[in-house]
Amino acid sequence: MAVGTVTTGDPGTQAAVTNTGTANDAVLAFTIPQGATGPAGSPAPVEMLSAYATQPQAGAGQTPLVLDRTALSYGTAAAHQDNTAPVTLQEPGVYTLAFQGSFSPGSGATFPLNVGVYPQVNGTELPGASAQHTFQSASDVANLAFVSPFQVDAAPATLEVVGTGNAFVYSNIQLTVTRNGDLPAGG
Predict the structure, then answer these.
(1) CA 108 centroid distance within chain
(2) Strand 27-33 and strand 2-9: pairing?
(3) Of the four listed, 59, 64, 140, 182, which is most buried by Cβ atoms within 10 Å?
């Protein structure tokens, strides 16, 4: 017995084996159907950037918050230069921003003192993403945080988190921006 040809059949057909030789000297020809198309490959790698600042810094008015260090950076979608406020978004797409930090009244603050934070892209506030606290005394400390999805239509784009208030101090801030994927078709 010998193996003859092996042929790929159409998807959904039955496998078949035929003898193309003789009864005493068999040569088997195999037809094996093509399998169904499998699932798509593994998802695209994570593209994200995380930056932080631990040292207390003073803010007043509309203050873009300075990030001392870049903690993690995967991919090329976002970039940050240490000791600056802006994060540069280098690819259009859908992103998620997570922010948290400690805030307290600054020197010379008058009470009640309203302090807030919000993100902006290219100078435009992202709707629905902000946090605020009203301080009643100089010993007050508040953790302000938000998570917000947003889209970037054209790159490069500048992302900043802005603090607002007459006199405040911020510390232990952390920002993580993750690129979730491309903009939906027609979006």
Answers:
(1) 38
(2) parallel
(3) 59
Q: Are 172 and 101 in contact (CB under 8 A)?
A: yes
What predicted TM-score, i.e. pTM, was given to this entire model?
0.76
- The DSSP line for the chain is -EEEEEEEE-TTPPPEEEE-S-SSS-EEEEEEEPPPP----PPPPPEEEEEEE-S-EEEEEEEEPPB-EEEEEESSSEEE-TTBS-EEE-S-EEEEEEEEEEEEE-TT--SSEEEEEEEEETTEEPTT--EEEEE-STT--EEEEEEEEEEESSSSEEEEEEEEEEEEEEEEEEEEEEEEEPPPTT-
Name 13's Cβ contacts closer than 8 Å, sequence gap at least 6: 31, 33
